[in-house]
Write a structure and sequence with these properties.
Luciferase, domain 3; 4-stranded antiparallel beta sheet; globular; 37% strand; single chain; mainly beta; GMP Synthetase, Chain A, domain 3; two-stranded antiparallel ribbon; 3 helices
């Protein structure tokens, strides 16, 4: 996982240092030099398996020092939302092995029949299927429910699973 503002990956499998078990859907662990954590809106670490916000507790090499001609916005959006940490705007959770699971952008949700559903939650569910190579979900207007989602998916190989995926 990385952001334009980070100039490189912040979370991943540290190939070359160690090759960790791959858990489909997980970004793996914060890379060396990244002091990443999942916290609540007050900056307190959340328990394992609970949703929070992925933050970096201190700057790291490659992190942009400002936004072009808008330093006030940079400080407001990235450093003041939870004072003292770099705010990524990513909802995440940490599992018992320290792996980070990104759930969605904090504000990237689709409202369907009065329910707020993160697009990455649907994508992660699709990717649990062993034949699924890639998945993406986008929202679209729906006159009955207010919104619905379109699932874009690519299978690893041709398999007959359409009925199973619809469930």
């Amino acid at each position: 996982m990385w952001q334009t503002e980070s100039s490189g990956p912040m979370v991943g499998n540290p190939y070359g240092i160690a090759l960790l078990q791959i858990k489909p859907g997980s970004a793996t662990i914060p890379l060396p030099g990244i002091d990443g954590e999942v916290v609540d809106e007050e900056g307190k670490t959340v328990p394992v398996g609970k949703e929070g916000i992925f933050v970096c507790k201190k700057p790291f090499p490659g992190l942009t020092p400002t936004l072009w001609r808008n330093h006030k916005r940079y400080v407001r959006d990235y450093w003041n939302r939870i004072p003292g940490v770099y705010y990524t705007d990513d909802a995440a959770m940490k599992d018992e092995d320290g792996y980070i699971w990104f759930l969605r952008l904090v504000d990237e949700v689709i409202k369907i029949a009065a329910h707020r559903i993160g697009t990455i939650e649907i994508e992660s569910a699709l990717l649990k299927h062993p034949g699924m190579a890639e998945a993406a979900v986008v929202g679209r207007p729906d006159p009955l429910r207010g919104g619905s989602c379109v699932r874009l998916r690519r299978f690893e190989r041709w398999i007959r699973t359409e009925r199973k995926l619809k469930r």
